[in-house]
């Protein structure tokens, strides 16, 4: 009987995540070319990396003869699901609300999710989220001279 290994599931989920990101950035209004990669470049490269790495993880696990130990308990799988939903909502809502609104919100939500069990002040997470967003925004727009996607309502 064929039994699905933990790493095979991780590989499949990673490939699916990459495909979802590809599908979500498909409608970005700026074309993706070699001369001007535009705002599709970073999520597109990440999605490509997810697909390639997911396939690698799946294939390596399929041909491996090693026994697999318990990976995540129910609580861990719930967190993985929440992260997947948050990142999917981020890609979807960025089209409507823009980078400068969505990124600090998502950074705050994810940093709060990952700070469970650690002493982390709310002010620190807010400050991190805002500073990270501004850093990425200025790096992308000023250093690379690339526009960020504008919200639909602008």
How is this structure best summarized?
The protein is mainly alpha-helical and 154 residues long.
Describe the structure.
- The protein has 154 residues and is an all-alpha fold.
- The protein has five helices and no strands.
- The protein has helices spanning 6-25, 41-63, 74-97, 99-114, 122-143.
Unreliable parts? none
Mean pLDDT: 83
What separation lies between the terminal Cα atoms?
56 Å
Instruction: Output the number of helix runs.
Output: 5
Based on Cα principal axes, name the global outline: globular
Strand content is under 5%
Bin the helical content: 55-70%
How big is the Rg? 18 Å
Give the total of beta strands.
0
Question: Layout of helices and strands, plus pairs?
Answer:
Layout (H helix, E strand, L loop, with lengths): L5 H20 L15 H23 L10 H24 L1 H16 L7 H22 L11
Helix pairs in contact: 1-2, 1-3, 3-4, 4-5
């Amino acid at each position: 009987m064929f039994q699905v290994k933990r790493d095979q599931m991780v590989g499949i989920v990673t490939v699916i995540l990459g495909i979802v990101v590809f599908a979500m950035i498909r409608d970005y209004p700026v074309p993706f070319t070699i001369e001007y990669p535009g705002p599709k470049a970073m999520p597109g490269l990440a999605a490509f990396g997810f697909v390639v790495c997911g396939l690698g993880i799946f294939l390596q696990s399929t041909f491996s003869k090693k026994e697999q130990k318990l990976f995540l308990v129910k609580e861990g799988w719930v967190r993985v699901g929440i992260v997947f939903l948050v990142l999917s909502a981020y890609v979807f809502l960025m089209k409507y609300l823009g980078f400068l609104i969505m990124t600090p919100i998502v950074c705050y939500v994810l940093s709060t999710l990952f700070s469970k069990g650690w002493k982390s002040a709310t002010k620190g997470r807010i400050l991190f989220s805002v500073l990270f967003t501004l850093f990425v925004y200025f790096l992308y727009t000023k250093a690379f001279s690339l526009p960020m996607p504008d919200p639909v309502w602008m």
